[in-house]
Each structure stands twice: as structure tokens, then as C-alpha cells.
Amino acid sequence: MRQILPLFFCLGLILSTLLSLGQRVIPILTKNNALVLEVSRDSTVTTAYLGIKLSNVDEYAKINSFYRQAKDYSGVLAAAYSSSGSRNLTEPAISVTHEDGNNSLDLKYVSSSTQRIDGNISLVSVLLKDPVYDFQVELFYRVYFEEDVIEQWCIIQHNEKGNVILHKYASTNLYLKGDKFYLRQYHGDKMREMQPEENILTHGIKTLDSKLGTRADLFMPSAFMVSLDRPSAEDEGNVLLGALEYSGNFRIDFEVDHQDNLRILAGINNYASDYQLKPEEKFETPPLVYTFSDMGKGEASRRMHRWARNYKLLDGKGSRPTLLNNWESTYFDFNEPKLGELVADTKKLGVDLFLLDDGWFGNKYPRNGDSTGLGDWQENKQKLPHGIGWLVQQAKDQQVKSGIWIEPEMVSPKSELYEQHPDWVVKQPLRQEYYYRNQLVLDMSNPQVQDFVFKVIDELFTKYPGLAFIKWDCNSIIYNAYSVYLKDRQSHFYIEYYRGLYNVLDKIRKKYPTIPMMLCSGGGGRVDYAALQYFTEYWPSDNTDPLERIFIQWDYSYFYPAIASSNHVTGWGKQSLKFRTDVAMMGKLGFDLIVNKLSKKDLEFCQEAINNFNALKPIILQGDQYRLSDPRENAVASVMYLDSSHQSGVIFNYLVNNRYGQGSKLPIKLKGLDTTQYYSITEINLYSGIASTLPKNQRLSGDFLMKVGFNSDIRADRPSVVLRIEQVQ
Ligand code: DGJ
Which numbered atom of ligand 1 lies nearest the CA of 357? Predict the structure, then answer.
């Protein structure tokens, strides 16, 4: 290896000489933003700028001369990808032990290229190599010009004589300058997902991470926002919004350095995950997706939504079926007659699909509770004597579709699968088993397990081609991480688990490209843009109390578009059926309640709301979302969706504070309208026999609605109001 060093070094020198003569910067540009990399005289690639685009590209090179910050002793503080063991004094993006036991790494510019993928997407790559070791990192930036979105990741490779140990392998090393930095992060648990906290970042390192394996987001997701100079505002200020496209353990370090700049190192969590990289093996990190907005977090979120619908979310431009789920109405207790009624109820309600939840499988260990049967994916003979085919036929007879729940990565300690394949189960061989929801996780790193999981899904679809929906659940986190299959490569487990899972999902999507699948994880324990390439929607929380959901959905909505949010009307909460339905309509509408217990009026209301939802699908599922009034700051929450032409929309308003006299005291300013046009506003989703208190046939200008606003007359006896807004002549 050492003999070929001079070649790398010379190449580096030649290129850096060329660069110093001409190409000093690598601009990575979107419609409104710029990420500018700079190659220094010693071939270090640094970040010169990340923010709003300048009109004159030549001026990026001047930016740094206008900063009078503390001395950068190492010269690599702003490195586009920082290494460890050489000059770097800060948290590294990468840390390795070479084949000869040496821990140092220095990465120098070798080349860069820009490939135009299509009219909107380009791929910038920057190759960095160590001048001493035959080790390289190639940085990739996939640029979505119109959406102002960048996906950034890297591929790590070497040609040393033996394995190199990767101790850390971040996807990105962003570098931001600002007066102050405010981090909006999220924490939670089952039933209280996406609780925001926003704080100033002080010097040192703040880390967001997960070590949970599966359900990696249970306590915190990788989604974050960083606002520059002042805390984030909905419609103003500079905000970077990002999330790691990875479903497993993640780690995001926010380091404010001694120069007061912010470094963001995001990637797979290296916790218990030293990786033995073989010569010539490519280690590809998952992308961090991010967007920057100088118009606040609202615009940043709309950019992310457009990108997700256009490019990432499975069938992002498609529609979504409405459904009736039986989980809350039956739990594990059902049989064919009951299911027959539920299918008939699906038709009566007017939704598209009946979704059979947990409990339909297992015979030796019937799934009559949450401690048995996972893994034994055969119909329970007592509950479904005529099998899933019978259910599919019932649905067909009722002219609705049918779908099924499954939790294929899991196994119950009481299951035939566990008895037959104890070595497929993630557990420490010498330690006592420890359970989350009485279950264990299958070892997805094992190809035999991958085949098993694929076969389970494949057989369901082949045996029952009428099945039109899958709810893919994942309730357990990983305790006692150990894989029999991986033998002495235990530190690869968390990574190989996800390689295995994505491998299965790839195969499923190759064979069944469009069947809608819900990404569920006992609530929002798993939602990210890697998984959403395979799934059409996610389940934000098992907490379906509509008041709680207003808050939970609000913060999820910064990162994920409404079309991906499965919202079900259930019996949870003290609010009316109308309130619950209105809240569920802010995303992909579903129901999980006992339809035959609904009063005539309640049923009529639901039917009418479903009709309204179907008519509003292009607006809610594909439109632009504007947050008008924040439930964390006001007594009224208000969210608006406008269609792509911004001529037609819907506004959801809720009372979120029940203290005496609270309500919409002030008009709420609308957004996204044309100031030169006029609009009519009509209340919809009215409960039968209740008239709207709003004046009829009002014609108001966009100018008025955006400067003065509109009062939806929210108060204790009108706690939920849905408004239809249309441009009129
Ligand atoms: C957790 C999910 O979030 C619920 O909706 C339901 O499917 C149960 N699992 C079933 O066990």
C-alpha cells in the first residue's frame, strides 16, 4: 500500500495546483440555496457557505474573508468531512483503525464531478483520499433544484492489505455560520410522540441518538430543525430542516466549535457498531435529507413535502384508500360472523377498505393476546375457519377492498417459529430473555430469516391476490442484541439488520410495486424516509385522542406530508365525533370504531365527511400545507391546505384550550392566497341539524384574508370548524 502513496499524493498535488489556478469552489446550488465547498491550498475540502444563494457565484470565494472569528488552529475546522487521528480537534465524521493498527486519517481532495440526472436533479460527487493510506471517501450530494432539497451521503472504501475498522462513519458533516443556533428536537414515547423542545445550542456537543435497533424513533426521531440567529418562526427566519433516511440506530452531533460555528454530523449510530471494512468493499452511508429556508420552518416543511411526494414516498403522487380498521373495536376477539359484519359496516360507512388487524393467526399458540403466536402466520382455525380467502371474498361481495395486519420482523416466545428456529431470534445466548410487549425480534441479518419474512408476505399476496393493503407493525425494540448468524461479526448486527430488512422490502416492492402498506410501529416508533420508499403511509401514534393528535400531527407535519399520515377516527378522547373526524381528515382518513353502535346522525355525519374527504383529496393529500395558528401558542389551532394552483383550499380550526371564554377572539390570518383575487369561505363537515354560525356568501379579497384574517367562530360549543375556501370572480 505504501508504494502507491506517491501516486495519490502527486494526483492530489496536480489537482490542487489546477484548482488554485482556477476552480477554487464547488458550488452545490438549488433554486434558492447554496452549499459551497472550497478546496484549500493543501487540498482540504471545506464548507465555505451554506445558506441563501448569492446572485454572483464568484462572490462565494470572498465570504470567509469577512469573518473575524477565533483562529482555526487545525485548518480543518470547516472540513466538509472531518477525520480523526491527524489534525482535526473536533468531533470527527469518520474514525478508523487501518489494517496496520494506525488510527490516523487525513482526507484530501482528488476530484469532483457533477452529473445531470434530469432537468431537476443533479448529483455532485467529491472524491477525497488519504495521502498516506489507500483509503477514500466519496461525498455525494443529490440536488433537487426546484424543491431546494439535498440528500447527502458518502461511500467509504479502501484498498489496504486487510480489514480497516470503521469506528465512526457519518453521512454528513455540515458546517453553518450564524450568530446563534437554535435546535428544535423531538422526544417522546408510546402515546406521546413528537414532543418538541427548542433550545439554543451552546458550545460543545449536543447529540440526538437512538440505540433501540427497531422502533428506533420511540424516544426520539432523527428529524430536527436548526434555526439561525433566533428561534424558529413559521414564516420567517433561516431554518435548516433535516432527517436521516435510516430506520435503525442514528446519531446526530451538533457541535458548536470554539469559533462559534455549528458542525452537524449525522449518520448511523456507531454505538456497539465497529465495522470491519474489507478491501474494496463499499460502505455506503444513508443519506441525510435537508432543506434550507429563509422563510421560516413553514416554507422549509412545504419544500420537504414536495420533495417527498415527488421523489421519495412510495406512490407520493397517488391517492390513498380510506379504511375501517377493527383493532379498537374488537382487539383480539373476533370470528367470521363478527368480521362479516365489519366488512358490511365498511360498505355502509362508505370507506374503501376493511383492514383486519392483529389476532388472525396462530394455532398451536393462538394469537388471543399479545404474548403468543407472532411468527406463526397461518390463519387461526377458530377465528377464520375459511381462511383469509373468505375475508377477501366477503369484501369483494360488498364491493370494498380488504387488507391485513402483520408484524413480520417479530416472534413470540410462545410460537412454533421460536420452537423451530431458536437461532433466528435476537437474544443473548447466555442471558435471560427480556421482552418488550412480550415478544422478541427476528434476526433480519440472517438471509434465511429474510427469506422467511419475504415468503410470509409473498404467500399472502399470491394466495389471496385480492388483498389490497398491508399494515406492517413493529412493536418491539431490541434488547440483548446478538445474532447467531453473524458469529464473530456481532458489531455489524445493527447495520446488517437494516440491510436485511431493506433487502426484503426491495424484493417485496419489485414484485408488488404499488400495494399500499402502512408503516406502523406501535405508534410512531418508526418513520423515516428510508422506510417511506417502501411504504405509502405511517402511523403517527397509537394515541388517537384528537386533542393530542392535533399536537402530534402538527410537529410530524414539518417533516412528512399529510398524504403519508394515517389518521384514524377512534373512540379515544372526550371530543365529539365531528371533532375526531375533522382531526383525522388532516391526513389520510381512516376509522377504527364500532360502526353499528353509531347513531343514525353520527353515521350520516361520517358518510358526509368521507364524501367531503374524497372531494378534498387533491388538496389535503397533494396540496401545500400552511400552519396558521400554533396550538402550543394559542387557544385555537388552525391548519390550511391549498391545492397546487392555490385557488381552492380547506382550513381546519380547533379549540385546544378549554379555559373559560377561550375561542377565536381574533381573526386568523390566512396564507398562500393571491392578494388580487377574491375568495368565498363556506363551513363544511357540519353535524346534521347544526347550522353554521358564519355569514353565508361572503366574498373576501386575498388581501383582506391575509392581512386581517378570518374568524371561524371557534368557541366551547363550536370547538371544531372546517372551512372550504374557493377563489371566486
Ligand atoms: C400496535 C399498533 O399501533 C395498533 O394499531 C395495533 O395494530 C396493535 N399494534 C396490534 O397489536
Answer: 7
Probe target for ligand 1 pocket from 190, 214, 327, 436, with the most ligand atoms within 8 Å of CB: 327
Q: Is 539 in the pocket of ligand 1 (CB under 6 A)?
A: yes
Provide the 8-state DSSP code for 310. Answer: I
Residues 683, 685, 690: CA angle, nearest 5 degrees: 80
Sorted by where each starts, the structural domains of the chain and their CATH numbers stand as 4-312 (2.70.98.60), 625-728 (2.60.40.1180)
- Ligand 1 contact, 374 CB (< 6 A): no
pLDDT band at 522 (very low <50, low <70, confident <90, very high): confident
The rounded distance, in Å, linking the Cα atoms of 43 and 28 is 18
Q: Is the CB of 328 under 6 A from ligand 1?
A: no
Residue 148 gets the label, from left (phi > 0), alpha (psi -120 to 50) or beta, of left
pLDDT at 541: 97
Atom 1 in ligand 1: residue holding the nearest Cα: 522
pTM of the entire structure?
0.96
- Sequence-distant (6+) residues with CB within 8 A of 481 are 213, 272, 426, 490, 493, 494
Q: Identify the pLDDT of residue 57.
A: 86
Measured in angstroms, how far is the CA atom of residue 254 from the centroid of ligand 1?
A: 34
Query: How are beta strands 181-187 and 224-228 bridged, if at all?
Result: antiparallel
**Binding site membership of 543 for ligand 1 (Cβ less than 6 Å):** no
For residue 223, the model assigns a pLDDT of 98
193 CB under 6 A from ligand 1?
no
79 DSSP assignment = B
Residue 531: the pLDDT is: 98
Q: Which long-range contacts (CB under 8 A, 24 or more apart) does 361-365 make?
A: 362/415, 364/416, 365/412, 365/414, 365/415, 365/416
Over the stretch 139-198, which tens digit does the pLDDT of each residue have?
999 999 999 999 999 999 999 999 999 999 999 999 999 999 999 999 999 999 999 999
Q: How many residues does the chain have?
A: 729
Burial of 192 (0-12, 13-18, 19+ CB in 10 A): middle
Residue type, 339: L
Nearest-angstrom CA–CA distance, 89 and 77:
8
Position 1 scores a pLDDT of 33
Residue with cell 413535502: 305
Query: Identity (one letter) of the amino acid at 233?
Result: A
**Atom of ligand 1 minimally distant from the CA of 592:** 5
- Sheet containing strand 636-642, edge to edge, reads 624-629, 636-642, 648-655, 720-728, 678-684, 699-701
135 membership: H or E segment, kind and range: strand 135-144
Does ligand 1 have an atom closer than 6 angstroms to the CB of 405?
Answer: yes
Q: Which of 639, 643, 603, 604 is nearest to 623 (CA)?
A: 643
Q: Provide the pairing of β-strand 181-187 with 45-52.
A: unpaired
